[in-house]
Amino acid sequence: MMLSKKILKKNPFTGKNVIVCGGSRGIGKDTSKLLVSLGANTCVVAIHDLQEVKQELESRKINDNQRVTTIYCDCTDYDKLKELLQVHIEKAGHPDYLINVVGYARPNYIENLTLKDFQDTLNQNYFGQLIPTLIVLPYFIKARRGHLACVSSLLGFIGAMGYTTYSPTKFALVGLLEALRNELSPLGIHCSVLYPPDTRTPGFEQENEFKPKECKIISKRGKILEPSYVAEVFIRGIINNKFSIFPGKSKLFWRVKRMFPSLIYKIIDSDLKKARKQLGKY
Q1: Which of 47, 111, 113, 268 has an alpha carbon within 20 to 30 A of 94's alpha carbon?
Q2: Residue 270 contacts by C-beta under 8 Å, 6 or more apart in sequence?
C-alpha cells in the first residue's frame, strides 16, 4: 500500500462523512473501500452492484461506530438525487467530502458518432459529476469547510482520436474545478481533480469493445494501472489537499503538454501514424 504508516496510523477519515458518487465499481469502488479502511463514514451513490459493495465495505470497518450507506440513484437525475442526499445528510450529518467518480467512455470513429452520442456522454460524464456537486456545495459553503474531488482523465488535457465524445467532457470538468477552486478557497473548501490514464476497470473493459483498432494498438504500448493503485494515489492527494492528482505517468504528460504542446501533438500523431501503418491504412 502506498499510503504511509503515519497516515494509516492516524486514520485521517475517522468520524468524517464521505459521499462517493459512482462508488460501486472500478476506481470508485476501490476509493470507497480505502475510505472505510481509514475510518470514514461512507455513503456510496450508484446504480450497480450496491448490495455487493455494501458487504465489502462493512467488512472493512475499523470501528463499530462507522456507518456504511448505499443510495440507488442515477447521478444525472437532479431532483431524485437531491431528495435522497438531503435525507441522508439529515441522518448522517454534515458531509466532509464529496468524491465524484461518475463517467464512461464509448470511443469510436467520428463518422460513426451522432449528436446523441455527444449529448449522452456529456450528460453522464459532466452533469453526472456536476449535479452531486451542486447539491452538496451549499452544505460546504454554509459550514465554510469541505472537500470536493472529481475524476477527469489523462484525456482531460490531451485530446486523442476515437475519444471525441469523451475528451471534451473531461476537459470541461477541469475547467469547472479550476473555477470552483478559485471561488471556494477563501471559504476553506478544497478542490481536487484526478487524472488517471488507462485503468483496469469494468468500464475500461466495456470501452475496449468500442475502441477503433488504432486506439487498441496505441493503448497496448502503455501500462494499464490497477484501480487499487489509482485509488491510493487519489486518497493520498486528497489528504494532502492537492488540486491536481496524477497517477502513473499522467503527470509527465501533463508537464510536457503545458511546456511543449507541439511535442505532445507530434507524439500522438506519430503513434496514430504507426498504428494506421500496422493496420495497412496509409
Answers
A1: 47
A2: none
